[in-house]
Amino acid sequence: MHQTGFNTSRRSFLKQSSATLGVSLAAPLILAQSAKGANGKLNLAWVGFGNQGWGDLVACSRDNNVVALCDCDPTIWERAKQRFPEAKFYLDFRKMLAEMGDKIDAVGIGTPDHTHFAVAYLAMSMGKHVFVEKPLVHSLWEARTLQQLAVKKNLVTQMGNQGHAFEGAYLVKEWYQAGLIGEVREVITWTDRPKGGWGFNGNVKTEYPTPEEPRPGMDWDLWLGPCSEKVGFNRAFHPTTWRPWWAFGCGGLGDIGCHTIDTPFYALDLGAPESVEVELKEPVNPIHTPNGSVVTFNFPARAKQPPVKIKWYEGPSMPPVPEGYDYGPLDAEGGMIMIGEKGGICYKGMRPDSPMLYPKARWEDYRAPGAQRVPKTIPRPRGIRLDWVESIKNGKKACSDFAYSGPLTEAILLGTLAIRTGKTVKWNAEKMQIDNNPEAAKLINVEAREGWRTKDLV
Predict the structure, then answer these.
(1) Domain 10-162+384-407 class?
(2) What is the DSSP track for 281-327?
């Protein structure tokens, strides 16, 4: 069982964390120094550009310079060489930053979850703005550390949860704030992962597969990064199916929760849950996520807002249809239903593409010609990637910067710890402490292997 972390004194870290908690979480407005290269262009480097990382890279490269690219699997380099012929290519991000650091303004990260922190920590320590795919990191300690480092270095940061830049996310928040559905005490979220979906096939494993020969030229040791477990290369991990394995990914919750839970987390101004409960449909598994878990996040009251429960159902488990919801069967891929005192808000799929009010008649009345609608009061970003690039150039905070996405990721990771241990997790966010679940407490911060600890990186 492994979840990455880096060598530090736990006592000194918790002391520092408590002292800076108010800065890193409660004061998220960071006005970074603008960074503009020649002709107003940023010099970008990217680490991990095989799948999702490729889409991020291409989007962010518009009107900017791509000067360095890194991926430990050179079998995927060819299309990048054709599109970015001026870029220097590397297997090792540490060598890239050592050689090209003074030529780089910002770094994008599209590697598996377990290596997000190492790349981001080194780049941020060098003063580079960073874009990190979701989930932000692989452990609670890593999440808190990056939040604090972003404040210390005054950097523009962004997590790649695309739905946070969708119009629907802001509509949901505005509708709730306008009182269209009254107070909310329960939210239902669900996904078809890990039973199905991209990167998952539902075949739960209880041991690692037999090692195979890595792809030509691939540095498997670099791909393992901080992971201390001796796991040999296998196509069950790379290139697309690493997420179900706890050593590398965060299961279905880490994959899709950063999308589907993001919208209610944002709309309801939620912070750290007090506890996370779990109901497992399969046995606890030390190396691979099980199917069918049901997770309940218990968030405390905020000012005049009541406590909120967010229930998360993983495939093949499905939630019951709540009273008053009359849009037919729930979408098999996933969705969100926010249950209010006066009806609710819902959307189908993992992201808030097209939120609606329910019951259906309420939505039809709201959309009718001449009906009074809630004004749009929240500024809209122009996509999660473009928002990051523009924020760097303009010296502004990004929409899903680490001050926001860090606490969201912490909540998600607490859910993964509940699944991994099969037990309730009671969380003290200020002290970064779990008292009731020793197995989960051990995973708050797990030391990385030699050569990958913070002292080794900077």
Answers:
(1) alpha beta
(2) SS---SSBPPSS-EEEEEEPPBTTBPPEEEEEE-TT--PPPPTT--S
